[in-house]
Amino acid sequence: MGHCFVRAAALFAASIGLSGCLTDAGGAGFVSRLKSPDVGVAVETPTPTQTVFASTSTKYDSALNAESTVINSLVARKSAVPSDSAYDQVTGAVLAANARSAESDLRAARLRAEAASKNWLPTVGPSISLTSLSDVIVNLVVDQVLFDNGRKKGEREYAKADVEVAAVALSVDTNDRAATALGLYLAAAEGREKAALSETTLEDMAHFEYIMSERVRGGVSDMSDLNIIRQKLGEIRASHTTNREATRSAIAELNAMSIHPLNDVRGLTALSVSASSAQPLGVTKAEAEKTRDIAAAKVERAGQLPGVNLQGTVGKNGGIAVNAGGASLGLGTPARLRAIEVASEAVGRRVTQAVEDSNRALRKLESQIAAKSRQAGEASGLTAQAKNNLDLFQAQYKAGQRQVMDVVGVYETFARAQEAEVSLKYEAATLRIEMARILGVLADGELI
């Protein structure tokens, strides 16, 4: 038995030496350890800002970080959210409570990539058979791929690209969560501000109701005018209640996402974002998926062609043999190979489509933000004009030149202008957050 293990070790070492001599110089199909990313490559140790996988120790991570432009671009992204702002408090609390399910997928992809980086090594396993004489024969089989039409190399490339896709998915998931939280925060802030306006409007309209009720009691005004004011009061109360409920609902949902309550956070933060701030995450994901799909096509193509293996058996009737085989060739093989090539071409078109879709979305958002900002400025001017008209009508009312209902009508115009100004302001802020989400700049890539 000891002699068998010595022969197995010698065979194992010989197969490694032979695989190391077969480089890709003679063709893309040869399996070469010299092409393995973690062997014979001088990789500079990444700094803390470059290490995207520092949370889990894996020897292959430094090579992945150094070689992947996708991962480097994700790490280099800087958040458009100003530090110590209201938005920063919201995103920080929400991301701290993130379950990060996409992170588990990324860790699994990293481990698969590390395993694939060693696929050029020979495999060792037992072979157990039962002869007709009821004897159990146990052999040790060492198998080394010599020529596989690029299958092993394609598997390594696929595993690396799969890590990049998972990294982009984690970035997308994080930015989506931050955008959702900021959307809830804006909904709560808008409801809070509108509730404050409606509360003031309710007090002022209640004062008009008192004046009109006294005039009706004195026989100066008609009861119909009082009924109209009371109807307006009911509408204002309903709007006030709706705004308060919207605020409570948004805050409750936001607190459910956060690591601590965010009831006391106040303020509207100006986000400095533009369509050229960063590459949209949708485009980055499409490029990563393109690389992965091309690698998958290489593996599929190699599976359609025969290869060469070196196989050694240690035990009874052991020995070394070179086996050629694998897939069987047929009349349909050329068509299958062509179909794989066409599939590789299709992934490039998907990237082009992703670029177009992202550009359309960003240009649309730019136009909408510009329009909402302009409308908010106009609404501010209209609010100021309505306030001047209200002051004038109140002065004329005190001078006996205007009726109460005239003042009530002008006051309604002023209240609507205030509410419209608030709505436009928050609509513009929501659009900016959506643009930052598409660009993936709602959180620092290094922290993600």
Question: How would you characterize the overall build of this protein?
Answer:
The chain has 448 residues and is α+β, with helices and mostly antiparallel strands. It has a single domain (2-348), classed as Outer membrane efflux proteins (OEP) (Up-down Bundle). Helix content is 65%, strand content 8%. It has ten helices and four strands, in the order αααααββαααββαα. A four-stranded antiparallel sheet has the order 1-2-3-4, covered by helices on one side. α5 runs antiparallel to α6 (151-217) and α9 (333-398) runs antiparallel to α10. The protein is elongated, with a radius of gyration of 35 Å.
Give the key terms:
10 helices, 8% strand, elongated, Outer membrane efflux proteins (OEP), disordered N terminus, single chain, four-stranded antiparallel beta sheet, alpha+beta, 448 residues
Secondary-structure content class: alpha+beta
Given as residue ranges, the uncertain stretches (5+ residues, pLDDT < 50) are 1-57
Termini gap: 54 Å
Largest sheet: 4 strands, antiparallel
What CATH calls the topology is Outer membrane efflux proteins (OEP)
The assigned CATH architecture is: Up-down Bundle
Average pLDDT metric? 79
The CATH homologous superfamily? Outer membrane efflux proteins (OEP)
* Rounded radius of gyration (Å): 35 Å
Strand content: 5-15%
